[in-house]
Design a protein that fits this description.
Layout (H helix, E strand, L loop, with lengths): L11 E4 L6 E4 L10 E2 L2 H6 L3 E5 L3 E5 L4 E4 L7 E5 L5 E5 L6 E5 L13 E5 L15 E6 L4 H4 L2
Parallel strand pairs: 3-10
Antiparallel strand pairs: 1-2, 2-5, 4-9, 6-7, 7-8, 8-9, 10-11
C-alpha cells in the first residue's frame, strides 16, 4: 500500500461487557456521527451509536458469541453478546452499508462523553416516509453534576 492510499483514521478497540466479543473499527465520520434512535427497540436499548462502514469493522474474537436480533422489517441486524447481553453493533436499516456501534463498547469512550446527541426518528423511519426525509426526533442532553466530580 502506498503512503497516499493509507487510511489515517485511528483504529479503535471495542468489546462487550464480559470480553467474549472483541472487535476493532474505524469511524466513518469521527464522533460527529454519534446519535440515538427512538424506535421501539432503541428506546429500550438506550445506546449512543457511532457510524462505521461495514468494511471498517472486524470481529477479532467471539464471533460465535454474537447473537442476532431482528424485528419489524427484519432489515436491521442487531448484534449482541450471548454471554453478557450487551448490544455491540447493528447493521442499519437506513444505511445497510453501515454499522451503528455502541459507543460504550469502545475502549475509553462513554455515552456521557457527549453533551448533546441527536435522536433519529425511528418511529417515522426515513425508509417508511414518501419523501425519505430524516428530521431528528429531538436531542438527548447530558450535563455532569459538578459536585459529583469532587467526590
Amino acid at each position: 500500500m502506498t503512503q497516499s492510499t493509507q487510511d489515517s483514521r485511528p483504529v479503535y478497540q471495542a468489546a462487550c461487557h464480559c470480553g467474549s466479543v472483541r472487535f476493532s473499527l474505524r469511524l466513518a465520520d469521527g464522533l460527529r456521527s454519534a446519535r440515538r434512535c427512538n424506535c421501539s427497540y432503541c428506546r429500550m436499548r438506550g445506546a449512543v451509536a457511532v457510524t462505521v462502514r461495514l468494511e471498517d469493522l472486524e470481529v477479532l474474537q467471539g464471533q460465535e458469541s454474537l447473537a442476532l436480533y431482528q424485528f419489524h422489517t427484519g432489515e436491521a441486524k442487531h448484534h449482541f453478546c450471548a454471554q453478557c447481553g450487551i448490544y455491540t453493533f447493528h447493521q442499519r436499516r437506513s444505511s445497510p452499508d453501515q454499522y451503528g456501534v455502541n459507543v460504550a463498547c469502545i475502549e475509553g469512550m462513554s455515552p456521557f462523553d457527549f453533551a448533546e446527541v441527536p435522536v433519529s426518528d425511528g418511529v417515522h423511519h426515513p425508509k417508511d416516509r414518501a419523501d425519505g426525509a430524516a428530521p431528528p426526533a429531538g436531542w438527548l442532553r447530558y450535563e455532569a453534576n459538578p459536585a459529583a466530580r469532587n467526590n
